[in-house]
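note to self: dont lose this again. the chain is below, predicted strucutre after it. 180 aa total, dont forget to put it in the shared folder this time
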Amino acid sequence: MASEGLQPGYEDAPAFPEEGPLASGADLEEVARLAVKRGNTRKGTTAERDAYTPVNGMLWSNTTTGAVERWNGSAWQFVMYLVDWTTLAATNDWTANTGEVSPQVSRDGYMVSYHGGMYGGTSSSAAAQLPAWSWPKRDTRLPVIMSDNSTIGRCRISPTGGLFFSGGVSQDAALTWSVV
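---
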């Protein structure tokens, strides 16, 4: 069976049925070319993953947990954490910057990165509540590095995800910490 035509918006990417196996006689070279171009990773929530019929070796980027998981033929196995930039909301008496300097976090493996700015709060109140996938194992204190490489104050990240600044961070600040 050949493909059902080309996928809209993807040059030279054949379209195959979304559900069920390919019919016998499928052009395996065409299937292989699609796999090389598109990979075998799907993305969605845990509920969407559990409703899907996986194929051995398939990868799933779990948007619920931030984990990349691999189907081993009988169960999903953790591979690593890989989370794209996620915007944080300000809490308590803090205000988050907007636009290019809005506060965001991402995770690559066991390292979490923060960039952005917040202002107006006090060091005794959390500026933001971090997502669970970004929480350090212990209380973490870091210097706040600005985009011009200057250091202004310190930051504390609690093991329950509270992000505390010792003064406002009104510019684009950068932080990186380990979650192990």
